[in-house]
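Subject line: Sequence and fold of a protein, written as structure tokens
Enclosed: The protein record, placed directly beneath this head.
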Amino acid sequence: MIVPDLDDLVLDHDEDGALEEVGRRILSEGPWTTVAFLVRTRRSFDSPWEGPFLWLHRYQKVPQGYKLVSRFHTTESSQLERLCEALRDWEQLPS
């Protein structure tokens, strides 16, 4: 899948409304672009929301726009909590 512009990025979803994008941040932009998405998911329209989960997507700039090359998805809310904790700890390290 190639998108012409980063503003055109839309996460895959289905008609069941099983994915909700809660937030997004562009972490780096250029020939290789990294986008962090915060999402919630559910198994069906009637199911409760689960998450939030972190999805990291890497896009490569190609002549037609941006091509999705790789992605990492957390699968448990606790992973996001542990990642936030690690980032807070690492922020305290001397530079």
Summary: The longest helix spans residues 77-91. The mean pLDDT is 90.
